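Contributing new records

If you add data, match the layout below exactly. Sequence lines come first and carry their own label; structure lines follow with theirs. Keep one chain per record. Anything else will be rejected by the validation script.
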Amino acid sequence: MALEAFIRNIPKTEIHIHLEGAINPETFLKLSRKNKLEIPDHKNVSEIYQYDNLLDFLKVYNMASRSVIDADDFHLITYEMLQACANSGARYVEFFFSPHVHLECDVAYQTMLAGMFRAMDDIETDFGLISRLIPAHNRELGLERGFEFLDMVLAHRTDKVIGIGLDFDETPFPPAQFKPLFDRARQAGLHRTAHAGEGGPASNVRDSLDLLKVERIDHGYRVMEDLDLVARCRADRTVFTICPSSTVGVTIWRDLAAKDHPIRQMIEAGLTIVVAADDPPMFETDLANEYQMLATNMNLDAAALKTLALNSLEASWLDESVKRDWRASWSREIDEQIALLDAENSDALTSA
């Protein structure tokens, strides 16, 4: 068994993936034609997917989001995203989605949920993959719109809606102003996470932890610029969901093999990281490939990959009883896969 097959086979969770960023380019073209969305002239859809920074990326993200209008559209993109996760070995998924983009297109929140919930049920039937939803507030819209967002989420909450997130352009919209929003979400029993320390400073990571009381940090790479904060996060086992391909695509860190790449530094510092795919088709990747990229560029062996897979389970918002049962079964399953991998490698050496 090659390492690539091992990575794809081992059980894992996906807890940092954006529904709209996971729309397949061909599906985007199909929906744009169906819903009469004007898009740039192109010979190949890849010409539209051109960006090397977050702001340009968000323009394409928003355009793709506007192609999704009715419940069937939401079902299609949700099913395709979750199927891709299942094909990467994911057994459980917590995914973000961006209600504000669709509300601007006069799509009712209930319509969004109807399509997504149906796809979540269908994928569990077809692949056994369980999923939960994290509506995310666009921080660029400010606090008052955030309260409207939360009221909407709570008014239509079911067990499938597990928490809220905070995303979009972090640099001019730091987390501190959203403390009242996250206080209300916590009081309502919602889990909480926030994008922080990707484009903004390490202080955004600290404020997300101290003011927003988030349970994990999405990205968080700039934590490495504050060694006191690194020591605290290591001691507290703060979870960072890291996304290798998107760092290469839209951040200043373009070389995963570099000694100063923050993901490498986070691993070497002993921080708790969870591998995630972020916006897979927009960076021509999937969850298994994100693990493979780390293994290749940072020389991670099968034991280290097992730790990452189990980290992804621990960091999820599954019930503790479920985590306990899955932790035991996943550990046994991964150990069996490691034994097969070791045996294959031993046979290869012998035959050589």
